[in-house]
Amino acid sequence: MLNVHQYSLLSLSLSLSLTTLALFLLVSAQEDHQQDTPIARFQRYLRINTAHPNPDYSPAISFLKLQAQSIQLQARTIEFTPGKPVLLLTWPGSNPSLPSIILNSHLDSVPAEPSKWVHPPFSAVRSPDGKIFARGAQDDKCIGVQYLEAIRNLKAKNFVPTRTVHVSYVPDEEIGGVDGAAKFVASKLFQELRVGFALDEGQASPGDEFRVFYADRSPWSLVIKAEGTPGHGSRMYDNTAMENLMKSFEVISRFRDSRFDVVKAGEAANSEVISVNPVYVKAGIPYPNGFVMNVQPSEAEAGFDVRMTPTADPDLMRRIIAEEWAPAWRNMTYKITEKGPLRDYTGRPLVTPTNDSNPWWSVFKQAITAVGGKLAKPEILASTTDARYLRQLGIPALGFSPMTNTPILLHDHNEFLKDTVYLKGIEVYESIISSLSSFEEASH
Ligand SMILES: [Zn+2]
């Protein structure tokens, strides 16, 4: 048994150690929140919730503007649509007559389901092994901060760019960029920037080579509708809406298989073929707790996600849809919604050359090698980014997010980026920005 004296000593030491623990926790939390290091700044940006459906853009803009001020970059905020700001930062070059370079990233992110995460998605917790968990850690707040950190380091080394360097932050990429990058690149302001080359987001690489993307696939939303004679569920007769829709499914499945077989055989990457995937089916006569089971409905509808490769022939695709997938003679109609351009303003595919014909490419490649990086074979991105709007203007644009040995977690639960990978990325951008901005040959 403890006597009163011993007990009070024990409780004193216990309360002391609790105080120490509390102090320690407080200090480490403050370290995380208040330190002004490249990693702390990344965490601060990640803690700003810019996820859809209600992205809060203004704190993100304020944070970035403050960063820009701290390294003496000019800053302009433009709202092409109210509440959807574009932030443009500028580092003037010593020879402003040369075309500029622009480093783009988007401010928004897709939503996260907090219950499925090991750490809250907007806490930017750094685990003991250096993983920084947050929605946007890979897509694409990493590059938004790395651009600034690289410029900060270059300025500290008294580097002066020859070409002007712009850094842009655009809203709404995750919902198609119509009120973001599309309006920005169409503006008079953008024209005045005289952009010669652009970098935008890419994707993580599970291996030790950096991935780079020279084109995106372009999404089409396809809705097909079938109409037919309604009738009793027991009868077999031709031309019901469901029968017509099922026939479409068979034809579309064959098209899908023919492309997918090429991928499975290793002849092409996923992103190098046209893909089509059913995303919804709508039919039947609703009834409490289900559907009427003895009536064949007069209407049936299905939706498909179609991804066009940059060199796909849109006219041919439209003909296949009209003649085979939803033929009028089978009482079918369809609607294609093209989400973004497929050709540039001169009618050419939206492809940035990754060979010697593009002088920017050689400079970019060398900049990566210069910091000990290896570059994988350039790829087409399976999905879509804002880079397509830049390519539409004929501006060479590469998709690049410097993340090697990193699982691809964009839009996934527990999205993270390792601190070491993030820091290496800053070094890579230093090399890229200094090389591209001091490169004098290419006039456009
Ligand atoms: Zn993204």
Automatic annotation (TrEMBL):
Protein name per the record: Uncharacterized protein
Cofactor binding description: Binds 2 Zn(2+) ions per subunit.
CDD domains assigned: M20_AcylaseI_like
GO-annotated molecular function: aminoacylase activity; metal ion binding
InterPro entries associated with the record: Aminoacylase-1_M20A (IPR052083), Bact_exopeptidase_dim_dom (IPR036264), N-acyl_aa_amidohydrolase (IPR010159), Peptidase_M20 (IPR002933)
The organism of origin for this protein: Carpinus fangiana
Catalytic site: D108, E173 (proton acceptor)
A cellular component term, taken from the record's GO annotations: cytoplasm
Keywords noted in UniProt: Metal-binding, Signal, Zinc
GO biological process, one term: amino acid metabolic process
Leader sequence segment: 1-29
Residues that bind Zn(2+) 1: H106, D139, E201
Pfam families assigned to the protein according to its UniProt record, in alphabetical order: Peptidase_M20
Chain residues that bind Zn(2+) 2: D139, E174, H411
Necessary cofactors: Zn(2+)
